[in-house]
Structures are given as structure tokens and as C-alpha cells.
Amino acid sequence: MTHTHFDLTALPPPARYKLLTATVVPRPIAWVSTLGPGGAVNLAPYSFFGLMGSDPPVVAFAPGDRPDGTPKDTALNIGAGGEFTVNLVSAELAEAMNLSATDFPHGMEEARALGLALTPGVKVGVPRVQDAPAALECREVQTVRIGRTRIILGEVLGVTLRSDAVLDAGRHYVDTARLDLIGRMGGRGGYTRTRDGFELARVSYEEWQREQEGKS
Prior knowledge:
- This is NADH-FMN oxidoreductase RutF, flavin reductase (DIM6/NTAB) family.
- Residues 22-175 form the Flavin reductase like domain.
- By secondary structure, the chain is of the alpha+beta class.
- The protein has one domain: Electron Transport, Fmn-binding Protein, Chain A (Pnp Oxidase, Chain A).
- Helices cover 20% and strands 33% of the residues.
- It contains six helices and 14 strands.
- The longest helix has 11 residues, at 13-23.
- The model has no long low-confidence stretch (mean pLDDT 94).
């Protein structure tokens, strides 16, 4: 088996982007809603996104700058200690999510332009997309800048799930497949569904030892 190595320190940003987005897959999509000046709702998708911990629950996403180097509306709206909501994207909402990435004029509300209904948040003042199967209500705790990369870390204050995907609220059991979420594959228009999953049981060291002894 042969491998090809790419020295990212010697490549320009577009080449690094192509390599990494084609390799690190699937990537969940953070469809982030924020409030701008005057209460205008901004809605934009980001696939540089992930869950970083649970105590406290933390998510991270990276809203890149505009081509001229200025921050995108999402970063401007969150500011220091600001609130935001991460709406997770179902297959049914894929087209609307994609359209919300359109470079609408500053201050134009994507949800209104696309006919998406919004509903008030519970723990934050930022609304969520009403038809999103899951939404994470967050507050920014820190923003890290590494060169031109901006990483926003947010504490998740509340989670709203579509009720048909909640199997047992008291025991916090969720039917993940029923959420029918999608993820990004590659950097240009590639997506995947998440229903095609499989399970592997966690193996203890003692179980692993017995298995090795059985092979000898």
C-alpha cells in the first residue's frame, strides 16, 4: 500500500482547503442563526463545525472571513459573549440550507427571503429554524484567532429536538436516524445522509485479552 504526502505548510490556502474538505468527512453542518443590529436575523451554514465536549457542553465552528478580509455577519453578530443557535440540517431542509449560503446583501434576512419560519428560542434570544429537527442554543465563551482562521467556541445552554425523534425524554433516548441529518462531503456541493449507520460494541481490555487468547 502506498501513500501520497502533501506538505500543507508549502501549499496555498485554496489547495489546503481542497485537500482537507475532501478528506475530513462527513462534516456536520451548523446552520447558525444570529441577531444583527436592530434585531435582523442572519442565517448561514458552516461545515467547519463539531461537538467539543459535554461538561460543559461546547461546540465550535469557524465562520471564515469575506474575500476582502472582513468578518462575515455571523461573527459580527456574535461578538463577545453573544448568543447564537446552531440549527442542524435534515435532508428535507438541504436545499433551503444551501440557498441560505447565497451572498445576500448585508442586513437582508435569509430566512425571510427563503420563506423559512422561525420560532423563539428558549434559553437565548436568538430564534431557531422552526422545521429544523434539532437546535442547540448557545452562548459564545471564547473566540480563537489563528491567522485568518476564526474559531468560535460556544456553551450549549439548551437543546430542542423534534418530538417524534425523542424515544424516552426521561431517559434522554433519541432516535438519531429519525432526525435524518445530512453532512458535508468534499468542498463543492457534496453531501451525505446519516441514516446508513452501523454499531460496534465497546470492548473492555479483559474481553480483548480473551479474544487474543482464543486466537493463539
